[in-house]
Amino acid sequence: MRTERHVDGPSVLARLRTWAHEVGFSQIGVADIDLASAEPGLLAWLEAGFHGSMAYMAAHGLKRARPAELVPGTVRVITARMDYLPRDLAEDWRDAERRRLATPGEAVVSVYARGRDYHKVLRTRLQRLADRLAAEIGPFGHRVFVDSAPVLEVELASRSGIGWRGKHTLTLSREAGSTFFLGEIYVDLALPVTAPEAPHCGSCTACLDACPTQAIVAPYRVDARRCISYLTIETDDPVPVELRPALGLRVYGCDDCQTACPWNKYARRATVPDFDWRPELAAPSLLSLWAWTETEFLKRTEGSPIRRIGWRRWRRNLAVAAGNSLRAADDPALAAALAAGRDAAGEIVAEHVDWALAQRSAASAASASGSPAIATSVDSVTRPAT
């Protein structure tokens, strides 16, 4: 980056807000780069091992909390919010998601991942915003980030007024809940800092109570090793056997802490078509997704965030969800498909398929003996007792 530049900050910020809305962002803010107060919490989280196998979280050390070390010359960070709920989504979407989680045979993909990959959508528009600014004031030092580098994006968003950090660690807004993506532009411009928003969670613990795996170990603290999003997206390892029932029908990510949050009654619809749901991911069945070949998986997830987990991880996740479905309600066609595809994706997937088929056998045996030990609905096997 160049040396810090001084501009007519209020005027530039006003124009940035107009341009941001034109390219699809709902809100922007500006944060200072002094994040020293966030460093102890980051270090404690890493030292507790809560990042699991995400070695990259620890690899950069405190550079995450020091923007000027990550991008020399940075003096401010422009933060941006882009809402992602589909434009035509019904008002009762949270109830609809809960119903799907309680319906055997369904395959549930996290709401944000049913459309286009947000990395590409936001990065393109952030760069467009930066280009527009450069056309106005001349070249300036900047770098665009969308969940792609050691950036404390929730901290920056909180400090710049996008929202506050909720107890589930996501950014929350009074006007938009938490169903939005964040992006940043590190700049060498001394823009005016926008005011932070005060927290409004109060005594509410809805997100902690709703977490299927109790991954929110304390307010504002998540153990990623227990988080369903981590288990289904971030790690190649086998899903721990003791956590498999809690995954329920979720095959990519989890929205439970968001659907439980009262603030998401204000969740906003996207202003761009990119996040409209793909038909094959809107409400798929486990059987239909398991039937995909690897070639079909690559074709159907092109331009989707799902593609990054790869074929084997996808099949592993489907097998766990299928086991939970078979435990709740017998489905001979799904069981037969699992058995037929057992060896197609390697040893780890085969072990998960064996586990899934064992759930069916256990449910059948319990039913024949009249035992009450086997759950009779998917909902009852996805939420362990607290």
From TrEMBL:
It catalyses: epoxyqueuosine(34) in tRNA + AH2 = queuosine(34) in tRNA + A + H2O. One of its GO terms (biological process) is tRNA queuosine(34) biosynthetic process. This is Epoxyqueuosine reductase. Its EC number is 1.17.99.6. The active site is at residue 147. PROSITE patterns: 4FE4S_FER_1, 4FE4S_FER_2. Belongs to the QueG family. [4Fe-4S] cluster 2 binds at residues 211, 227, 254, 257. Keywords: 4Fe-4S, Cobalamin, Cobalt, Cytoplasm, Iron, Iron-sulfur, Metal-binding, Oxidoreductase, Queuosine biosynthesis, tRNA processing. NCBIfam families: tRNA epoxyqueuosine(34) reductase QueG.
